[in-house]
Write a structure and sequence with these properties.
- The chain folds into 2 domains: 2-122, Creatinase/prolidase N-terminal domain (Creatine Amidinohydrolase, Chain A, domain 1); 129-353, Creatinase/methionine aminopeptidase superfamily (Creatine Amidinohydrolase).
- The protein is elongated and about 75 Å long.
- 33% of the residues lie in helices and 23% in strands.
- It is an alpha+beta fold and 354 residues long.
- It binds manganese (II) ion.
- Manganese (II) ion binds next to loops.
- Residues 3-126 form the Creatinase N-terminal domain.
- Keywords: Hydrolase, Metal-binding.
- GO terms for molecular function: aminopeptidase activity; metal ion binding; metalloexopeptidase activity.
- Residues 133-336 form the Peptidase M24 domain.
């Protein structure tokens, strides 16, 4: 609640319209799909329709919000603005459509709409102990899935089937849902950083990259492991794998509170560049995760946010060589005062499955 008051004050606002579903969950505990909140200096309201009356009331009341049965018009919301003397209203401009914005402009006559950009989402960057516990459990479930999926990797196995198995294993182990569309990318497809599982089957002597995660209590996990399938591994495969692994371990050894996200990115990037593979590492080193699978701070060349204690970020360098294959290794880590804590327990040394 302090965070919302600070936002009002720092941006010289009389109110904030919360519409982003992750921010709504964070501040009101609402887990449904239809609803929004109005926060003013004097009142806190949560608007939703008849379907969510009971659920929303139970969830938002303990968080200090009053449930308002919404008639689906913004005109009725304007009454609340008037009642609370809102002249400057912050909106989550990155979250609303142009037509929604135009509607607000019409219905909220005389109210100045102020774009908050990602200021609300950024209040979620430092995790509480409870949030960290949820992320840890989501990571633990993902680790179980990795160990179990290895038994299913064989010649002719379809990427999509392996992806479905991973989801099934995680759900059997307590996951609410998958946290994104899994990447199972084998052979030439492993050179695609976002090679979502396809109909391709696993063949001998290729890399297979698994990138997956789940939700537990609303919080995400995200893990990537690359294995080699077959008995004829080349020196090039080994070199690429070990370069990514060394870069990942190096970044983990340097990650700590007080450094800029871009400095952490540079640690892994410089190492990979020194080894001659710089041009094949075309994405950022990582991203934070929490209620969202990708959230601030982003760990990239342009990441100017300073890492702080209890931010949870991924460290996931990769090398991708078109026509040959690729490797990525990803762990979720908690930033600490003097280092970081790696949450994933899945092994990272080169695994050759025959
Ligand atoms: Mn990731």
């Amino acid at each position: 609640m302090m965070k919302l008051n600070n936002l009002l004050q720092q941006n010289n606002l009389d109110g904030i319209l919360l519409t982003n579903k992750y921010n709504l969950r964070y501040f009101t505990s609402f887990t449904g799909t239809t609803g929004f909140a109005l926060v003013t200096k004097t009142g806190r309201y949560f608007f939703s329709d008849f379907r969510y009356k009971e659920q929303a009331t139970n969830q938002v009341t303990p968080r200090g919000f009053e449930f308002v049965l919404w008639d689906r018009s913004m005109k009725s919301v304007a009454e609340f603005l008037k009642k609370n003397e809102v002249k400057r209203l912050g909106i989550e401009d990155q979250d609303v459509t142009l037509s929604y914005y135009n509607n607000l402009k019409t219905e909220f006559e005389g109210v100045e709409l102020v774009a908050l950009e990602d200021k609300v989402s950024k209040t979620r960057m430092i995790k509480t102990e409870e949030e960290i516990e949820n992320i840890k459990e989501a990571v633990r479930i993902a680790d179980i899935a990795f160990s179990k999926i290895l038994e299913k990797v064989k010649e002719g196995a379809k990427e999509k089937d392996l992806s479905a198995e991973i989801e099934y294993i995680m759900k059997l182990n307590g996951a609410e849902d998958k946290s994104f569309d899994f990447i199972v990318a084998s052979g030439y497809r492993s050179a695609m950083p976002h090679g979502v599982a396809s109909d391709k089957t696993i063949e001998k002597n290729e890399f297979v990259t698994f990138d997956f995660g789940c939700y537990y209590n609303g919080y995400a996990s995200d893990i990537t492991r690359t294995i080699f399938f077959g008995d004829e591994i080349t020196e090039k495969h080994k070199e690429i794998y070990n370069t990514v692994l060394e870069a990942q371990l190096l970044a983990i050894s340097k990650a700590k509170a007080g450094m800029k996200a871009s400095e952490l990115d540079k640690v892994a990037r410089d190492y990979i560049t020194e080894k001659g593979y710089g041009e094949y590492f075309g994405h950022g080193l990582g991203h934070a995760l929490g209620l969202e699978i990708h959230e601030q701070p982003f760990v990239s060349k342009i990441g100017d946010i300073v890492l702080e204690e209890n931010m949870v970020v991924t460290i996931e360098p990769g090398i991708y060589i078109e026509g040959f294959g690729g490797v990525r290794i990803e762990d979720d880590v908690i930033i600490k005062k003097d280092g970081c804590e790696v949450l994933n327990k899945s092994p990272k040394e080169l695994l050759i499955l025959k």
